[in-house]
Amino acid sequence: MEYIIKHLTLDKAMEFTKWKYDGEYAIYNYPAWKYMLEKNYSITNERKRNEEYRGIFEKNDLIAVFRFFYLRDEIFVGLGLKPQLCGKGLGSEIMGIILNYAIENSLKTLNLKVRNFNKRAIKCYLESGFKIKKDDFSREYNFTYMVWKNKE
Q1: What are residue 49's DSSP bridge partners?
Q2: Which residues pair with 148 in a beta bridge?
């Protein structure tokens, strides 16, 4: 399949935030757009959306969204895969696309945090070259922190 990375338009951002995950993964569901506007979520801010968010498309179909952002002087990546595609083995391919984009944009290191219960995501990140970063914060709040370093 051929994938294209594009800026996330308002319409596509709204589409993304309507994706619904089931079971324990429902924690990743976004609230209503109106609520996010009131609380100033970054995805609702046009400047931040243009600077930080990208969509991965198969033809015109939005299949994943990722974001590069600064937190504690480090660059983090956040991502979401369309719920209907989760568990179908696409994670490594999508991570490859994101990491190639990071390399093309001269990023040397990426950090991420993932909830400890999300074993399939942790496995995917490890297979994509991320390493587990140990610290007290992750144990206390049930997250696994991970780091990827560009080897080029």
Answers
A1: none
A2: 110
- Our measurement of the distance from residue 49's CA atom to the centroid of its chain's CA atoms, rounded to an integer in Å, reads 13
Alpha-carbon dihedral 23, 28, 31, 33, rounded to 10 degrees: -130
Q: Determine the Cα–Cα distance for residues 120 and 80; give it in Å rounded to an integer.
A: 13
Structure confidence by residue, pLDDT tens digits, 54-112: 999 999 999 999 999 998 889 999 999 999 999 898 999 999 999 999 999 999 999 99
Q: How far apart are CA 82 and CA 61, in angstroms?
A: 10
Domains annotated for the chain, with CATH where assigned, are 3-149 (3.40.630.30)
Distance CA 64, CA 96 (A): 13
Q: Which two tokens stand for residue 74?
A: 């480090």
Centroid of chain to Cα 28: 11
Q: Which helix (H) or strand (E) holds 56?
A: strand 53-58
Please answer whether residues 145 and 127 qualify as being in contact, where contact means their C-beta atoms are separated by less than 8 angstroms. no
pTM of the model: 0.92
